[in-house]
């Protein structure tokens, strides 16, 4: 099975950016085949990566929902048709593939789209060495179990007590739902020049969250984002990117090495 890295956190913390940086990191280091999964209905991961997406899993939901007669092309069953369309959803990029959940048109429950996504990730996990999942904002996605197993989850917070509170709720929910999450680490993103305050550090300690590291607030990343430039094009010497890649060097790389040894 693929080694799965997932990102969770409330909206606006920058988790999609960090997920994109992680995909780029894995590809650059040639650690294995990578599947990037945008599990957020409000899809943005492709913009961070600079990839065009023509078809999403949300559109599958609409097709099946609108197929009142239950008759699919070529005499395919519903399951066969879903698998066929799933293959069309995969976007082949340079060094990785991308699968996007997308936003279903109109109103309606996301349960079916989430079910399709969960089945898709389960099927595809054996075909890749790594799966990087950018989850939707909030906590609801955890109860929907986008994937059945996560090896490493990063709870991403901005530099605020509310953000740390949200990260702690993620930790609690993982325990309550008995989710199969190997390890959970906190990343505090967009940290101002003065660094973490004593209040923030005390809150992290109180909740017994394991802090993987911090990523500084960076105007260059804002500038790239505002101009619509894929964030993976940010120069390697960029301070925020450099600090985040140090986190991956210290946290992710050793665990990949252990994972690979177990698989031998």
TrEMBL record:
One of its GO terms (biological process) is negative regulation of cell division. This is Cobyrinic acid a,c-diamide synthase. It comes from the Bacteria. InterPro entries: CobQ/CobB/MinD/ParA_Nub-bd_dom, CooC, P-loop_NTPase, ParA/MinD_ATPase. PANTHER family: CARBON-MONOXIDE DEHYDROGENASE ACCESSORY PROTEIN, SEPTUM SITE-DETERMINING PROTEIN MIND HOMOLOG, CHLOROPLASTIC-RELATED. Residues 6-230 form the CobQ/CobB/MinD/ParA nucleotide binding domain. SUPFAM superfamilies: P-loop containing nucleoside triphosphate hydrolases (SSF52540). Pfam families: CbiA (PF01656). One of its GO terms (molecular function) is ATP hydrolysis activity. One of its GO terms (cellular component) is cytoplasmic side of plasma membrane.
């Amino acid at each position: 099975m693929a080694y799965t890295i997932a990102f969770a956190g409330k909206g606006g913390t920058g988790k999609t950016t960090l997920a994109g940086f992680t995909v780029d990191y894995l590809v650059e280091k040639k650690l294995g085949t990578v599947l990037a999964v945008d599990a957020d209905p409000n899809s943005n991961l492709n913009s961070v990566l600079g990839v065009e997406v023509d078809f999403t899993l949300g559109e599958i939901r609409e097709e099946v929902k609108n197929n009142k007669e239950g008759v699919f092309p070529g005499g395919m069953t519903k399951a066969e048709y879903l698998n066929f369309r799933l293959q069309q959803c995969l976007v082949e990029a340079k060094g990785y593939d991308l699968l996007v959940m997308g936003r279903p048109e109109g109103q309606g429950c996301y349960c079916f789209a989430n079910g399709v996504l969960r089945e898709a990730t389960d099927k595809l996990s054996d075909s890749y060495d790594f799966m990087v999942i950018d989850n939707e904002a909030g906590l609801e996605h955890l109860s929907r179990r986008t994937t059945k197993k996560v090896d490493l989850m990063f709870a991403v917070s901005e530099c605020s007590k509310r953000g740390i509170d949200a990260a702690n709720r993620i930790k609690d929910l993982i325990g309550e739902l008995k989710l199969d999450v190997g390890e959970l680490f906190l990343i505090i993103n967009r940290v101002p020049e003065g660094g973490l305050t004593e209040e923030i550090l005390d809150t992290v300690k109180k909740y017994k969250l394991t802090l993987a590291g911090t990523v500084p607030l960076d105007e260059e990343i804002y500038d790239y984002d505002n101009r619509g430039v894929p964030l993976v094009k940010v120069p390697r010497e960029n301070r925020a990117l450099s600090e985040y890649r140090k986190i991956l060097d210290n946290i992710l790389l050793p665990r990949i090495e252990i994972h690979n040894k177990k698989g031998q």
